[in-house]
Amino acid sequence: MPYTRHGRQKELLPVPYYHVIFTLPHELRAFARRNQQKVYGLLIKSAAGSILKLTGDPRYVGGRVGVMAVLHIWGSNLSYHLHVHCLVTGGGLSSDGHTWMPARENYLVPVRALSRLFRGSFLDSIRRQFKDIDLPKSIRQKEWVVYCKPAVQGTRTVLNYLARYIHRVAITNSRIISADNGKVTFRYKGSRGDKTRTMTVSAQEFIRRFLQHVLPAGVHKVRYYGLWSSSNRKKLLEVRQILTTQPIRMISRYESKKILMRRYLSHQNPDNVPHCQKGTLIWIGRLLRRGRASTMRRKPAHY
Questions:
Q1: Which is it for strands 17-23 and 146-150: parallel, antiparallel or unpaired?
Q2: Does 56 score more than 60 pLDDT?
């Protein structure tokens, strides 16, 4: 499905959204650059698949969300910085296709679990595609950087932000200060994006940095999954109808425990214990965690 910013805006559902970023560790960047046509697709698929799997868990969302994944391969200083941006609906469609399951307030899924799921999915895909690959053991042991936050600045703002990476090249002419005497000077932002700096490199190095961000033929920057996949276009219309009749609001953290437990039980046999599926469960209530005991020590009594 070709990307058009206005076309995507028309398909936005009237629900909150989340912006999720998956970053490939620097130890794998050289390997990814040598195998761009295969690795880029696997990277996007692993990122989106991890979101779909974890949000499908009734402990979190319990429904099928919509995911738009955008590949981004450069940093502001034209370095090779491979990561995937995802725009995710703050809720999903239930398995029966008749109920919208909203995400909790300011919370989609646990980021650490999402990071580890993404790491395992991508590395397993790489091993299947490249039989003789020898990856460092530390890759499976270190935590991969995954960032998730609500699109509080507005969904259209995030969509426009992603569109800039889709329709432009690694650097614009306005950022190039000078190009003479075999050197190129250009502006870039620091790692935190809070300060503009300048960098001067040789013309050859500038060309090398720029060309490494030209995608091979056949590689797609944008892919759609879940409710936004091309196979779910009709289902997306049904979701819109559901949302017009069902009031949408985020679940507060005070409501979430009861609601998520009901979701969990609805995915199990209600007559069985959820964890072992044996015996008979009679649901009475949930015991809340007690507050921590005071850490102050009492003075010993003297007799």
A1: antiparallel
A2: yes
